[in-house]
Amino acid sequence: MVNRLAKESSDYLLKHSTNPVDWFPWSDEAFDLAKKLDKPLFISIGYFSCHWCSVMERESFTDNKTANFMNKHFINIKVDREEMPDIDKIYQRYYNTLTGSSGGWPLNIYAFPDGLPFYIVTYLPKNFSLRSKTFMALNKEIISSWDHERTELMNIGTALFRNLENFNKFIIKSKAQIDDEFLIDQIIKVQKQMDLVNGGISIGSTKFPRFSLLRYMLKEGHIRNNDKLMKFVEFTFTKMSQGGIYDQIRGGLCRYSVDRKWTIPHFEKMLYDQAGWLRLASDLYSLTKNKFYYNIISDTIYFLKNEMLDPNGAFYSSIDAETNDIEGEYYAFTLKDIKNSLKSSNTEKSQIKQYLEIATIRYGLTKNGNFSDPSKKLKGANILNIKKSISEISKIMSISDLEVQSKLEYIKTSLYNYQNQRIKPGIDTKQITAWNAMLATSLFETYQKTSIESALSLSLGIIDFLLNNHLEENNLIRSTNPKIKVDKKILGVLDDYAFFIEALITGFEVTNNSIYLNHANKVLKLMNSHFYNTQDQIYYFNNKHANINLGNIIAPMDHSFQSSISVQVLNLLKLGKYLDDEHLITQAQNLLLTLSEVSIEYPGSMPELLISAGYFLRYPSELIVINDTENELAKKALSQYLPEKLVYRWPRSNDNIKWSIIEGKDKISHPAIYLCEDAKCSLPFTNINDFMNYYLQTRTKVQK
User: Is the distance from CB of 218 to CB of 229 less than 8 angstroms?
Assistant: First the structure.
């Protein structure tokens, strides 16, 4: 038996390289062999930090008996969904069609030798469960059907393929009217889902951050003077930052909460979640100037630098949910752990009791704990949640706020150092273009709104890395791994191109360096050649040149992060304006109209598209900053919360791009700001307060 995963660059695939299962990577070799031997494919899709993927690997894929059956009857393929999200998205769509349910991971597909699926299931246990059949029982049923009911299986596969094509046709042919009523209707529908007690959106028992939706609500609340919407976003952010979903000791946000109160997280930390968290925090800081958000921003940047940054300037993909095969072990603390951490910090014996009491009150610690891991190996474990404020603790303890704050910092440091003695969760070290680009955008915006220098240096480092290592003459590479050098290229999908363009545009707006604009235009041309269907005026998610014959897929919904096709709508608008290219603006408008019907059908599922729609409906405010070379006026202007703006900064490096909107204004000798709307510009402002008063007056014209 030859397991072919040992030569892969994916940490997830390498996890499986020692399995007794004869795994293939996604490859022509696997498909050709299945055709030759007339065997069905078993395709298992997962990712490095996925807890249930790890459980299934330990239970089934390391079991010799199970592996022998799989090797005898199937050609087995392992896929890292983060390397090949197009494969994952297509099969997830098939799963949704087959079951009517949203999918998950591991996603296990039984398919014909060409990849066409006939049965799909998520995690199955090795041993008997009242809730589901075992993995081996299903395998035996599948082989029986393969041998005796092949025609029925083909009918299922054909129907699934037809449904995929029909969904694409529905998107392409649909066009809805985009007006202010459209946006208001979406807001009304979203408001019905707001959890006013715990924050966030209540759908099911779990709760995801949903950053795009929160950013959309904040923007519309601001523009429409809807205080309820804005306060809800602030409330939600505060609840998350106080909950277990936010790491109270190390910083960083976990994937989602398994309960509605944000108490217990699903512990993996994904790079894209840190990007979304940082971007929302910088928006809130820009709007409120509340130091609370600034502190969260600082802590998040510190976490990213310390735990996810490679020396090459780009960031790793994720941190695992488990250590020692136990989910959450690294992040859970018993009362004994708290006490031991204080002892190891050489805390005076007379002080330990008080420190322990403060920690108990602050984090709501109990002897029995608030967390029961699936393995049942952790006893009395607590996931830290902030239950009491500093002022509340000071009243209870009869000590000053300053003293409480000082002691809490001491406790955090003690727990941080204590945690460092534990086995650390594994890190998926691959560096994904899309996710790094998302973070670069967030860091650029963070710098603009906070002036935190490290945010700028980190974002520039990401962009330099991607330009030098992932951008080729004719392609954008999806990912590389600095720890594993192999001669294999994973082609980028729509995400990689769209998010990289967004990062380059944002870099241009923040630095005024036109080289980023030039690179964005280059990546756009590659993107259009690989993904854009000129006849249907739509971007497909999967690369035309990736040799995947499962059908094309359009991916308009925001899921773990914002939809790249919705991001591209705004990319096209901005590039069209900055490059003075009406064709790009028209392309953006057509794309928006095409996607709008889907947004109506699935309210709240496409907030990133609604963000882009606002730009078109209200037409963005054009902020012109003259003589802005390192002056305070420019910094203050660009740090304001102006969610629908285009930025024209002058002087600019010589790039042969002429901005007609600048004409006549570039003669002014002192720093000044203009606000232009509908091609009409204000008089120049030299005082930031006067400018903001004028801007806010223009916002009141928008209906609530």
Answer: yes
